[in-house]
Amino acid sequence: MAGEIDPSELLISDRDRESTVTMLGTAMGQGRITPVEFSERCERAWAARTRAELLAVLVDLPGAPPPELASLVLDVSFGQVRRGGAWPVPELIKIVGMGQRTTLDFTDAVFHVPSVTIQVTGNLSTTRVILPLDAEVDTDRLELVAGSVRERGWVPRRDRAPRGPGRLRRLLPGTPRDQEPPPPAPIFIFLGRATLASVTLWYPRPAKRR
């Protein structure tokens, strides 16, 4: 199907590699692997580019892979699904239920990856995505037949680069100058193919100076 992606081929981040090295250190401390094996596997982990390459160094160890590497599949046919609050965001979210009504609120979400892929294949579905501040969105690979992508809220202008969170923080009153700016919002990549489906993107209003 057009827009399908193999999760094993998703590119990984340095944070993913760090999580894997931590798991290898735990395994060595438990005597499951030797210091030599730990060193060799760490080299492979840091050299890995895809999820499959990274998980290969953990394949014979007990325990699940880091949670941010596991995909989230939402499949509730003609039902409602909501994710909100401080929920951990994986790198791949699949919306597959026919007639599914989905709300993904990323306002207070916890991100471990630089990009989040949202794959929409549920026909007759409606998806509402509440984006974090300064989020970048790519919908070029999302094909909605007899459907549409709508933008609501404080939609950013397309003729200028988005204002970075560090710059915004420096403009806000009462913010210590030596305080570290928050990490940039991840890039949201939408892909997949669905019929009679809609995706609504809600952009937050930037904070105003007093």
Question: Main attributes?
Answer:
DUF1707 domain-containing protein, about 210 residues, DUF1707_SHOCT-like, 4 helices, five-stranded parallel beta sheet, alpha/beta
Describe this structure in words.
With 210 residues, this protein is α/β, with parallel strands linked by helices. It has 2 domains: 49 residues; 127 residues, no CATH class. The protein is built from 4 helices and 12 strands. Helix 1 runs antiparallel to helix 2. The N and C termini lie far apart (50 Å).
Set down the secondary structure blueprint.
Blueprint: H1 14-29, H2 35-47, H3 51-55, E1 72-74, E2 80-83, E3 88-89, E4 92-95, E5 101-105, E6 110-111, E7 115-120, E8 126-130, E9 136-145, E10 148-153, H4 165-171, E11 187-195, E12 198-203
Parallel strand pairs: 1-4, 2-5, 3-6, 4-7, 5-8, 7-11, 8-12, 9-11, 10-12
Number of domains: 2
Fraction of residues in H or I helices: 10-25%
The termini sit apart by 50 Å
Which descriptor suits the 3D outline? elongated
**Number of DSSP helical runs:** 4
Q: Sheet with the most strands?
A: 5 strands, parallel
**Count the strands?**
12
InterPro entries: DUF1707_SHOCT-like
Domain DUF1707: 11-62
Region (Disordered): 156-184
Organism: Pseudonocardia eucalypti
